Amino acid sequence: MRKLLSLIMVVAMTAALLIGCGSQSAAPAENTTSNETPAATETPAAENTETPAATTEGYADGIYFAQDAAFPESGWKSVATFEVKDGKIVSADWNGANVAGGVDKKTFSSEGNYGMVEKAGAQAEWHEQAAKAEQYLIDNQSFDGINFIDDEGHTDTIAGVSIHVSDFVNLVDEALANGPSGKGPFTDGSYFAEDADFDPSNGWKENVSVTVINGYIVAANWNGTSEATDKDKKTYAKDGEYGMVANGGAIAEWDEQAAAVENFLIQSQDVDAITLNEEGKTDAVSGATIHVSNFVKLVKEALQ
Which CATH number fits domain 189-303: 3.40.630.30, 3.30.360.10, 3.90.1010.20, 3.10.50.40? Predict the structure, then answer.
């Protein structure tokens, strides 16, 4: 009897031991499964990390550029250029171009020709105040939250700046919305070309003045002089003395048609886009029926 009880106890202990071993061997299988689950989520986690990196870094790298669509009454339109590296604005240039062409606004101001201090009692010249607005953009990486104190676009946010800055602010926003544009194909500077002689058929010697900023044509002025008058050709036409409409039934006076040709060049950035027919006229520019071949020639000479 005792032998039988001892045998039963041995069998029971053996069975319990086998069950315990089976439970321990199943545990690693569960742990292995739980360890594999994070491994399966590693790829989505890496993808999620990349997307925020592109947005939190800031702006897309490159050179940004924007200019006013037209020249205001002052004759100066604003031009904004800035560069982004590693998602941050690292340089900024607020400049301007005149409707008559010639040098850019910063050069005009730095040479003492704008005369804000002398003529208007300003606290600093235009180019000096523009530099402070540029630095504000670099330091703050945007104009978000800037306070305008009037409808003209003056601000009390930027110390040392009393000129209106709204056009610069708007152009920066426009450039950011459009994305990097890079530099244009031309060399920065002011360019001029003029006919060698007065045209015997009309008495005018025509000229062209072109302004380039960030490689883009931002101003082009097609004009002329005559020995018969002290007025330039555009002024002569504006004053009604050229008389293309009254005398020739033209669709517009010479100065208006010339402005349409100039604007086409600024928009297209390609003088060869002004295609010519045998008469030296073009169908490419809406609102221009005058001869434009001399304008094309002079622009090419100026930009050489």
Answer: 3.90.1010.20
Single-letter code of the amino acid located at 74: S
Domain 62-178 matching CATH 3.90.1010.20: the answer reads yes
- Chain mean pLDDT for the chain: 86
Give residue 50's pLDDT: 34
Residue 228 near residue 242, CB atoms below 8 Å: no
Query: Which residues partner with 67 through β-bridges?
Result: 79
The residue type of 168 is: F
- pTM comes to 0.80
User: Does residue 46 surpass a pLDDT of 70?
Assistant: no
What is the 3-class SS of 110-163, one letter each residue? HCCCCCHHHHHCCCCCHHHHHHHHHHHHHHHCCCCCCCECCCCCCECCCCCCCC
Q: Which residue has the higher pLDDT, 119 or 24?
A: 119
182-192 tens-digit pLDDT: 999 999 999 99
Do 189-303 and 62-178 fall under one CATH topology?
yes
Q: What is the residue extent of each domain of the chain?
A: 1-56, 62-178, 189-303
Terminal-residue alpha carbon distance, the chain: 122
